[in-house]
Design brief:
Layout (H helix, E strand, L loop, with lengths): L3 E5 L3 E6 L16 H8 L27 E7 L2 H12 L4 E9 L6 E5 L2 E3 L7 E3 L4 E5 L2 E13 L10 H4 L5 E11 L6 H8 L25 E9 L5 E5 L4 H7 L1
Parallel strand pairs: 3-11
Antiparallel strand pairs: 1-2, 2-3, 4-10, 4-11, 5-9, 6-7, 6-8, 9-10, 11-12
């Protein structure tokens, strides 16, 4: 597994997580995870952090969904782990994402302040707004529109026939390119909040399985662009991940 290191000092490590790789295992599958890579490259980090049952989470202070790419922060020792965890808890860490969502968003900027709970119909999903079950946890997401665009023939529709044979024009679909700043860190927060606005993240097989997907993208259209934190000396550090090539194509 090839993982790019974006930042490293004696206490903190920031890596560029590829899409399609889980941060840590779930105890059911044996596929390689980022935790495996960490244990191989940084064996001293084995006992840093909080294990989840028998699952080892070496130095992992936050996580990204399997299909999300971009900056992931890790602690190399217990002191750094507690230091970073407190920054996350106090909402001092600034995270910025890029997302491509379905449809054209009406407002150029916005704030989604909607608590998140569990979906009553699918244990894998979370839900904002009416119908959410269990403990509702505060969730705040800011967004800014970077671009609205339209793609002819976007999506993987089995019923989309050849236009010459069927006699109709190939459909086109609208998308919005966003900069997103989550102020809280709930599971699937950006995906859940975009779904709440009826603009789900493109190519999201969990929250929008029947939605259309730009042909250029074959993964969840969500990327952790940057993260800003304080190191143990109090210096503010900002780490950025290069934009995936799929996103660059749609940015033009």
């Amino acid at each position: 597994m090839k993982i790019k290191v974006l930042y490293e000092d004696k206490d903190i490590l920031a890596i560029d997580k590829p899409s399609g790789i889980s941060v840590h295992g779930d105890g059911k599958t044996k596929e390689q995870t980022l935790a495996d890579w960490v244990l191989e490259k940084y064996p001293k980090m084995k006992n840093v952090g909080e294990p989840m049952g028998e699952i080892n989470r070496p130095g992992i202070v936050h996580r990204l969904d399997k299909e999300t790419s971009g900056v992931l922060l890790l602690a190399k020792n217990k002191k750094a782990y507690e230091f970073l965890k407190n920054q996350f808890k106090d909402r001092e860490i600034k995270k910025t994402y890029n997302a491509i969502v379905s449809g054209w968003m009406k407002d150029d900027r916005g704030v989604i302040n909607k608590p998140i709970g569990r979906s009553p119909s699918d244990f894998r999903r979370h839900l904002a707004g009416r119908g959410a079950r269990g403990e509702l946890r505060e969730a705040i997401t800011e967004y800014r529109v970077l671009k609205r665009f339209e793609i002819p023939g976007a999506g993987k529709r089995s019923d989309l026939k050849n236009s010459k044979r069927s006699g109709f024009r190939e459909a086109s679909y609208k998308f919005t390119y966003l900069e997103v700043r989550p102020k809280t860190g709930r599971t699937h927060q950006i995906r859940v909040h975009m779904k709440f606005l009826n603009h789900p993240v493109a190519c999201d097989s969990l929250y929008d399985p029947k939605g259309f997907c730009p042909k250029e993208i074959n993964r969840l259209a969500l990327h952790s662009k940057s993260i800003e934190f304080k190191d143990l000396k109090g210096k503010v550090v900002k780490v950025e991940s290069p934009l995936p090539k799929e996103f660059k194509k749609l940015q033009k």
